[in-house]
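Field: COMPLEX_INPUT
Field: COMPONENT_COUNT = two
Field: RESIDUE_TOTAL = 766
Field: MODE = joint
Values follow.
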Amino acid sequence: VSGGGAGAADAREPAAGPARRLDAEQLELGGGLEVLLQAALAGMAPGEQVDVVTRSRAVALELPGWARLEGHAAGDPRRVERPGRDGAAAAATGGRAPSGPPPPERDRGRWAVRLRRGPGDRVAVAADATDTRSPDRRRPPAPGDARPSGAAVPSAGSQQRGALAPPLRDGGRFHTADWRDGGLAPPVPEEAGRTAGLAPLGALPEPGAPAFDWPLHRREQLWAADVAELAEQATAEQWDATADVPWATAAELPEPLDRAVAQVMTFIAQNEYAALYVPAAFLPQVHPAFPEALQWLAGHVHDEARHVEVFTKRALLCRTPGHALAATELSLRTLLDERDFTNAALLLNVLGEGTFLDLLRFVERHAPDPATAAAARLAHRDERRHVHFGVSHVRRALAGDPDRRAALVAAAEQRAAKLTELTGLSPLLTEGLTILAAGSLRPAALSDGAAAVRGLTATMEENRLRRLRAAGFDAATARRLSELHTPNLM
Amino acid sequence: MSARSDPITVGAVAYHPRIVTIWERFRSYFAEAGVPTDYLLYSNYERLIDAVLAGEVEIGWNTNTAFVALERRLGREARILGMRDVDAAYATVIVTRRGEAFDDPRELAGRRLALGSRDSGHAAILPLHHLGREGLDAAADCALVRFDTDLGKHGDTGDSELRVVQAVAEGGADAGALGDATWAAFRAAGLPATHGLEVAWRSPVYSHCNFTALPGLDAALAERWTAALLAMDRDDPPLREAMDLEGVRRWLPGDRAGYADLFAAVAAQERAEAAT
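Field: COMPLEX_OUTPUT
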């Protein structure tokens, strides 16, 4: 048959001629020899030959079968060194004193098997690290081939980064963003192959893996300029709801404060559930080529789980259970219904959590005990990051696509349409906040408390507008979005 | 060049469900390569040989035993269209427990020798043949411990060889014969039974499976089919899975020389059976 490349004889027998030598000593297959062989063969070109020299006849006898399974040709085992009359045992034990009976004659001296490296690499490499299944890319470019622009992925065996030092910040901190910025890791892709697999940043994906389907596979869908830094911050600012709150100070409060704290804590915890489930739902949609975004969302979810924990714990320390209100649930349900990442970032991060920043600040200021104050303060620290991400992401989305503004307003309108039954903040919550600020049911104090709550709603609106403007909305749209925002706060 | 629009038909034995995966992929490949090929599966090699001889399929994907049986029934040379790289320079090994290896196969006289399925070229027929050439009439001088599992599949499933290895490891036999590639695969899989064993003997090399057609197959078509087979590239991701399942890294043209020993072994076996 012509045109078939190497003939059958070629695969059967290595030829005479030059060969490297690999001393396998007493290594066995299944005992480390295959590691040595693979390392040697990886450094050889197809067609190059190596004489594997072993002290064991058994190893020599099974080497050809191993080689063939690995795609290499092998010659017959041959004895290359017969034992002398003296020193036979020394040769067979590598010069060490034999610890047991001398080896049998067949294992004295040396045996050799000639291998010729077969074609191909053990692991194939996709041409595009973020797209392992692009149908028009059947194989990695060979050395010397013209490469697709921007792709720097030669064939597997020769893939080397060279010696690298991590770009460390003070104190030895290693940020992924610095790795990217220094050109040591691939840049953030504008679009990653939607069906690609779970390849870590910088890894060489093997083609032929099962297809995934990542809805969030374009950078514009989920990115924020500082997402990597925000993820780093989130890691650095973790806290412990069990140990970092002075729980001993959450002493029994007199009525009506106990009931007020129970209701406010229950309301916040109820809302934190929604803040947890929204990013959690997006997490498995994010393409693995955006590890910073994954890290960010995972941290977000973890933060919210901790918020649920800390406010639940504080509510449990009250004598009276708070109410998980149906109206609150209705509002949160509409938030969970949002399927678009950017819409959710506006509704949850910018509007919902943004408004909660002011609520948490209010609770901290008027908390009747240090434990409640600490819970609000620590949660506020996390929520600030979440709001920052939302503002940053929405600003980027608006800058990249002017039509995005209308879609965002439509999302807010649709949500508001589902919430027409909500006419204002729940009276139970308003009362709870008022008592919190008043400290008692004395009329004068209540008057001050009510004024503080009115001040809170004014602050909330003012800050909401400020955040919307920061996210890139014009004044009129910001006003419209703020008006559409749920009376439930989140 | 002869033009043919209907597909060329290949028969194969369905010794494992993966055979369907393999041939569905190969079928697509051959269609893309411009040599439309369809496949029929049989439960055993005897049926496959019947099908090739009867013209039910044009090409049989045969074991070496099936190829020899086919040519013997045909009475003349068939046409070999290709083989896997692993089929060239195939060998049988005999394993013993570690430390019990022999220098000369005749030392196995009076001992228990485990063999795979009696229709397996590599795990039964050829080891007996080659041991005979080295002076050991194993059928007469050894206690044969045969594992005749999956008869009709010619050892393809590897089941009988697994039992051979386990028998030697557990003391049910003193030595056992199996294909060198099977042994290497057991080793690579970390099969615990291999840990306490060593290879004591290795047969001369022979050829294993091949694609066989009757001599009357259109020569130009046969050449085109072989050319397409040999052009399969394991670096092509959709092919890689199928090729790995088939145990082939690249396809090679066929070679008759590697079957001479098996022809001799089968003829001798037939004579021996006729004599008893």
